[in-house]
Amino acid sequence: MSNNSKIIGKVSATEKNPSTIDYFYFWMDSNNDDLSPFDVIMVENPNNSVTYAIVEEINHVTDSSSHFTSYISSEFGSLANVESEQAGNTNRLSFSYVKAKVVHNTKNTYTPVLHDRPVCLCTPKGIREALGLDDVKNPLTCGYMEMYGNKVKVDINDKFLIGPDGAHLNVSGISGLACKTSYTMFLLNALQQKYRKAWEESEDEDNKSQKITYLVFNVKGRDLLTLDIPNEKLDETQKRIYREELGLEPEPFKQVYYYYPHGKNASRNYTQSNADKDDMDRQFIEKNACRYFYNFESCRDKL
Q1: 10 to 130, 227, 302: CA distances (angstroms)
Q2: Which region among 82-91, 189-198, 209-218, 248-257 has the lowest average model confidence (pLDDT)?
Q3: Which of 62, 112, 229, 298 is the most exposed place for a label (fewest CB within 10 A)?
Q4: Which CA distances in Å does 101 have to 39, 113, 137, 141?
Q5: Residue 204, Cβ density class (10 Å: 0-12 exposed, 13-18 middle, ≥19 buried)
Q6: Given a cut of 70, is residue 90 above it in pLDDT?
Q7: Is pTM, for the whole model, over 0.90?
Q8: pLDDT tens per residue across span 280-292
């Protein structure tokens, strides 16, 4: 088997549940707690190809024909020795089996995996290969997934995020938790870091011309009005994940400029804003903030 691959079970092809080009089943040790739904596993085939699959279902069964039989075998429902492995009149044979969906074959040979072939956990490299993450064009780090102890960096093609091929992103989730906003800011920060690094390191004038700018409309109170301030709540473990797992620096946005709607309140720097007063004062002193307003004369041709 492949290096560092832990065998967790064997393929089981039965009359009722045969292996197909899309699915297969395998049994595993009932005490195995490495596996979770959506994990990636692998099977090596006789033709030297590897079939990767994603765990869809994990089932546990016994030789009991019904729940009633199971009830009877436990001294007709006695709970006296419930914590003992020897509880009950009959110790049932039991095991766990898994239904897995095929997602990739290294030789694009999609024939059913064979009965009794060993099933293994994947290395991080295998997980990336199975999910198509090993050859992403224009890679942009968008996070990482954790699978049976492995942290696997996830990249997307940034041209589908900012154009010209897509320029679109949907982020869904429960309202009010700020998770969607936080993740969007993380992704934009990663994008800025990538383009700044490419610009600073490149000697090609064509690459020098590729810059990125964001226009952010703040509808989150004061949340998005300190994007240039380091997050003091990041601990050393989180900073290490940024650097080692994601290849990013745990730093705020660079070259941020704030536009505040004009107001009459002198104590608020003549703005209408929920920004913290100290933050706003600093921004105006450092000259990375200004006020704006619209008047009728300059806008009437656009009405």
Answers
A1: 19, 52, 70
A2: 82-91
A3: 298
A4: 11, 11, 26, 26
A5: exposed
A6: no
A7: no
A8: 999 999 999 999 9
Are 1 and 123 in contact by the 8 Å Cβ rule? The answer is: no
Secondary-structure percent of the chain, ordered helix, strand, coil, rounded to 5 = 25, 25, 50
Nearest to 63 by CA among 73, 55, 77, 54: 73
Show the tokens assigned to 46: 């006789």
Q: Which residues of 226-258 are buried (b: 16+ CB within 10 A; e: fewer)?
A: bbbeeeeeeeeeeeeebeeebebebeebeebeb
- Residues with Cβ within 8 Å of residue 155, at least 6 apart in sequence: 133, 136, 139, 140, 141, 142
Show the 3-state SS of 165-207.
Answer: CCCCCCCCCCCCCCHHHHHHHHHHHHHHHHHHHHHHHCCCHHH
Amino acid at 243: R
Whole-number pLDDT of residue 205: 67
- Classified as helix, coil or strand, 251 is coil
Position 201 scores a pLDDT of: 82
Buried-exposed string 107-130: b where 16+ CB fall within 10 A, e elsewhere: eeeeebbeeebebbbbbbebbbbb
Give the integer Cα–Cα distance in Å for 273 and 288: 16
Helix extents (H) in the chain: 67-73, 124-130, 159-162, 179-201, 205-208, 236-240, 277-285, 296-299
Extract the tokens encoding 232: 């003091």
pLDDT at 86: 54
Is the previous residue joined to 18 through a cis bond, with omega within 30 degrees of 0?
no
Q: Say if residue 81's pLDDT is above 70.
A: no
DSSP symbol at 28 = E
